[in-house]
Predict the 3D structure of the following.
Amino acid sequence: MSKLRIAVIDRDKCTNTKCGYICHNVCPVERMNTDCVVVPEKKDEKTNPNYPFPVILEDPCTACGLCVKKCPVDCIKIINLAREAGTLMHQYGVNTFRLYNLPLPRQGVVGLIGSNGTGKTTALKILSGAFIPNMGDFKNKATWEFVISKFENSPDLRNYFTQMKNAKLSYKPQNVDRLSEVVKGKVKDLLKKSDQRKVLDEVIESFDLGEVVDRDIKNLSGGELQRVAISAAYMKDADVYFFDEPSSYLDIDQRLRVARAFKKLGEQKKIIVVEHDLAVLDYSSDFVQVFYGTPGAYGVVSAVKGVRSGINEFLDGYLKDENVRFRQNELKFTTESSGAGERKGATKYSYPEMKKTWKDFKLEISSGSMKAGEVIGIVGRNAIGKTSFMKLIAGADEPDKGSDKPEKKFKVSYKPQYIQADFSGTVQELFDSEKLVNNVLNECMNRLAVRDLLLNQVKNLSGGELQRVAITLALSRDADVYLFDEPSAFLDVEQRLHFSHLLRSVIENSEKCAFVIDHDIVLVDSVSSRLIVFDGKSSVHGESSSPQEKREGMNSFLAQMNVTLRRDRDTKRPRVNKLDSKMDREQKEAGEYYYYEK
């Protein structure tokens, strides 16, 4: 059973000897000559694996909070668990992250939803046999026999672990960009080698791989690598399939193709998917399990829930069956933020019709205007010119001769699609290196939880941390027009919605303007006042519409995707209708792809 209190020390922040072990000195339990915050001795440097970090003993700790308050780098967390969390599955070491409970594979698709840092990837690695969970005993080497002995009262997990030695498992990892480092050669060679179920032709069509099968893996883009990695895992003849964040780098059409493939495979197999795109998670899953806790400190896995109820309980922050509230405020979708928020103000800036031709790609941009206080969403398939459009607006690229350039009446702040961690220094030093608007900077740091990262080295940030820092930096600059290219990448559901509300608030209050490119339709729906829709053929030619009313733009775009949406009756979040369902057919016949309501 779990302890009632856990202590976590962030070793990336801890200054230990530099601060003189303040945590030890202020601890009232230590002052009563009882060990609580144990300081390692210099003589044990070579034998103590925790040297030079202090160790907080959780049993004698009273959670007074003095060490947390006095720590000069905010590296300590003392967390009281409101109740027994369940079975402690794994703890990485003393005063480190721990995971309680595990999701359970079952026929169909089990979707995992939760904040970053609450153990979803750890759970997948345990279930896929990547490592043996230590059940909290991190001092001794774990064995499967030991693990199985702990589940006498949990027959489902006991049977799973007992059978896992002989089970065939397929695992698509989170970081697909490393695929080109470990796999060499042509795409078709990798796919043929993986095709244990003899579905190669079907997969090439379903995942739109026709144009990349003859390429070398090292020359693939992020989205192409993702589709190849998904395909390789999908084609194996396995008993259980694991897919960790399959939507990253994919456009909406590709995400829905993958979701449909998972649904089809789930009719015969067991699949577990970690997903942060709510619409895709909802569309592809048969069941949902929620991960909650304190990111980086501990995570707890909920019981199995129905898809709609599981997602809605996560958004509400309250698990009904467990009677657990894990978030103070619910994540809301209002009618205004989901379609009725078009700005009625006067035009503030405009840009002309533009053309740009590269060797193999031609781009045509319709003229448009921006209104004070509005956010314009930009949607379309990958490789169709959206990022190129944004670079033209930003002045990072110039249109062909004969086209007018955007007027230089407005100052631009640009958050690019691909972020480089090339700053040498801490996040605080990065912010100090630019002249930023302090009130916006503070709001960004609070809403996106960036304040906790200020003392971290930029080069050591994770993908999600780097994204939040880049968003904060871009939005805190003094500019007239703010450009965000795929801000949802590497962010979890909460962070995406926090960004949406933050951006709308800052832009509306300052009466500035913003453009947002993204493939998460829930985010685009939440943040946009109007839409620019891109059409054409990927990697060949692209053309943009002018900014148009939200419903008109969504109807145009969703018709391209052959997808219809409805609102959830409780949360108002977008839900994708099943292809050829009664509601899907009704909406298409009425020409209302976007939130049809009779």
